[in-house]
Amino acid sequence: MPSLTVGVLALQGGVGEHTGLLRKAAAHLAAKFDFTEVRTTEQLARCDALIIPGGESTTMAIVARRLGLLEPLREFVKVDGKPVWGTCAGLVMLAEEASAAKQGGQELVGGLDVRVLRNRYGTQIQSFVADIQLPFLGEAEKPFRGVFIRAPVVEEIITHSTMGQKTAEPVEVMGVFRKAEAVKGDGGSVEDIVAVRQRNVFGTSFHPELTDDIRIHVWWLKQVLDTARHKGLPVVSAV
């Protein structure tokens, strides 16, 4: 009986870091997973779930297009409804719209009804680490140390309606970054949406894979298991 296969899109970014934390997280769950790097459509087709890591979203989209992955990725997310998690640039890729894109724009995979603002906090040298309260991890849990590197944020949740009726599951705000003094130094306050979920798609502005904290990876793998069971897929118990 095959294990559930979780892929990490290996075009750029912290591929090894994500894979390492996934393996540690899986050790805390009573199910067996196979983890694989994804660079081809054949590798993607074998996956039951996928992580799109950080990097540079425009470059990732160009490489994905050249490798013939862009349309299969859209089908994976929007048609097959398989669990997908995007971190930083991965969040940008999974958004339906992006602000502050490079000249000429960029292609997106989509799946999250949000518009993201790229590079919300400035350049690479303005990267920072901050505590974030993530209620989905449990109210009693300690804050998560979020690593923000040229991070995007969700600047708008896009709503679609027909005759007053909502046409899609709403976007859930899963985490907000608050700071008394604005990062950009304008004297105001910051309250940015940095984690969202909609249906099978989850996105974070920050980089959990660059920490030793496995909590989000454990939580996400539980979502993968729940989806597999809902779809009637076999789940192999860990030995």
UniProtKB/TrEMBL annotation:
Record key words, sorted: Glutamine amidotransferase, Hydrolase, Lyase
GO MF annotations in UniProt: glutaminase activity; lyase activity
Residues annotated as signal peptide: none
Entry binding sites for L-glutamine: 55-57, 118, 149-150
Enzyme Commission number(s) from the entry: 3.5.1.2
Group of enzyme by EC: hydrolase
Protein's name according to its UniProt entry: glutaminase
Organism lineage string: Eukaryota, Fungi, Dikarya, Ascomycota, Pezizomycotina
